[in-house]
Amino acid sequence: SYYLKESRGSRRWLLFLEGGWYCFNRENCDTRFDTMRRLMSSKQWPVTRVGTGILSSQPEENPHWWNANMVFIPYCSSDVWSGASSKSEKSEYAFMGALIIQEVIKELVGKGLSTAKVLLLAGSSAGGTGVLLNVDRVAEQLEEMGYHGIQVRGLADSGWFLDNKQYRRTDCIDTITCAPTEAIKRGIRYWNGIVPERCKLQFKEGEEWNCFFGYKIYPTLRCPVFIVQWLFDEAQLTVDNVHLTGQPVQEGQWLYIQNLGRELRNTLKDVTASFAPACLSHEIITRNHWTDIQVKGTSLPRALHCWDRSLHESNKNGKTPLKGCPIHLIDSCPWPHCNPSCPTIRDQFTGQEMNVIQFLMHMGFDVQKMAQQQGLEPSKLLGMLSSGN
């Protein structure tokens, strides 16, 4: 099932894949069914939905895409949009993420997609990873159906995970504490997950799980893809077992968090189009404050607009990036929320909003010591933190 908002004058289509973790064995899928039914069945879905962020039809909230045809595809397959298995003797559950996308495309062709100029496949979290896994397949499907004029592109938000070492190693007991590699290794077998052929060829048989990690699949993709990723993604920290609740953060955690930002920044250096703010958050493109976040003075809608233009121009003459219209935007400051446009942080217990300095002190950040390390006066460091330099 899917939701559609037609915009008859437009030849641009935006298909959005919803996120929401996954489950990878009978036990945690049963738990998911009991506690998060809307992510496993369409029974309780509302009749209509209101689009927000990049799915909004208000130009103020969505300056460059407000007029597109919008499609919201809810996530009920629990398989990171990769599965191709129906319910069987062996499994009580069907995992059909990859097939759902194909079927939606087939149906939309009859509703105007056939005359589209641009199809942007977007998604957040598990939906963001779903974009990386499906964008080339969508392009191939449309070509096979004879629609060669549609430019297929991807926009992956908060779906670029690292297969790094956890801060504290735990056994793979449930979805939240299981290391990402272990969860995907189990999941891909349980879902009968499929990955793109070109990525699959890079790895040995049985190692297809590698293709769920952005930095490994990205070099194999044919379609242009824009990557949006918080440098300190909350879902990544959760699976790495860094829990920022209440207690001051120990030095080991603090170093781990900073290192995570560095590692992530490294994996994005060869990504042509990217937007990576140094914030602690998760998901952005469907939030109504998505226009407020900036990296190096450029907002995300503006960067996406520049990317659109660069793809449009490069079709004509393969020009270098457009002047004053950047598409590779990665924060260089080293800790969470050193960018002053980051979304507000709330204390998880009191619900109080915190500014950067309160947040860092709450995390056990030692201003004196940090200032010493950077060779600065503490007051100067505090000034820099609050202005975000």
Automatic annotation (TrEMBL):
GO molecular function list: palmitoleyl hydrolase activity
Any GO BP annotation: negative regulation of canonical Wnt signaling pathway
Family per similarity comment: Belongs to the pectinacetylesterase family. Notum subfamily.
Official protein name in the record: NOTUM carboxylesterase
Species whose genome carries this gene: Crypturellus undulatus
Gene responsible for this protein: Notum
